[in-house]
Predict the 3D structure of the following.
Amino acid sequence: MTAWIVISLAGLGSYLFRISMVLLAERITLPDKVERASAFMAPAAFAALAATGIAASTAGSDITQAVPLLAAVAVAVIAVRHTGRPYLAVVAGMPTLWLLTVAVGA
Amino acid sequence: METAYALAAQQRRDPMVRLFAAGARAMVPWLAGIVPFGLVIGVSAARADIPAAAGWLTGPAIYAGSAQIATIEMLDDGAAPAVIVATALIINLRLVLYSGAIAAYWRGTPRWWRITAAYLLVDPSFVVGMDGYQRHDQRDLGHRYYLGGAVVLWLAWLAAIGVGVTLGAQLPSALRLELIVPLYMVGQVVGRLGDRATRRAAMTAAVVAVIALAAPLHLGILLAIIMGLGAALKVKEGSQ
């Protein structure tokens, strides 16, 4: 019974977080600073999530796993910078990761 | 007359269907990394000392992977219910920021829309949705784009957890598919580094996220986002 209640409460709270500003924005005006900051929300959130994912994967792995990953990130950055196409980060990065993983492990 | 009306309705509908499909397609790169994560959550729920159905319920109820994992693990460990709920909510604090960022685009929409759309708000749907709103001047088109991505994500997420719970499947760990999502986000960040303030936001957030990797309760991501926003505003105000 405890598990059901805990999961339901965590779910309810998470939903209230999701809808909080959506409902409040009708009744209150966010400060200018917050409105201006929202323009930078996406790049800040993407960068934080990407850095966390990459750092967590490298921190817990040995050099044979870390080097291919860091090289894949570098290739992804170069590919997007040169072409301006964000999806190439995955298209170029994952094969680099696989190839180097095989090469380093061999 | 009726034919003309049907034709006009069809023409109005088409861009909506097209945008819904475009949003769904934009979610596809996320699914390759997210589905294995959903399977992992399902498997961990199946192995934990809780009812399998309760483990699966974390999907539709909490609907955020990190908080779901934390909830399942802590329930399995026998942690105090209040601590488990508090931990899940702290991990999900970033949803308030997402809510604040996307609220401007939902202003003036019917209440049912906001209630439904907010339920589907999580990292990937936020990313895809914001991209859609920034690409399309008409809000209606942005809504469809958001909904297309969010619905596909929701269905795939619940299906993946269900498969994990039911089968306890083995993940193809050698492919390291979990790294598709960080790489995808690298692409999104690099593609947006147009002005100095945005670069500062991204760089600060990335550095703080790495430094705060060991921060308790997954607070590092929230802290990194706030610091990134602060750094960008400082640059913006300095240039005015």
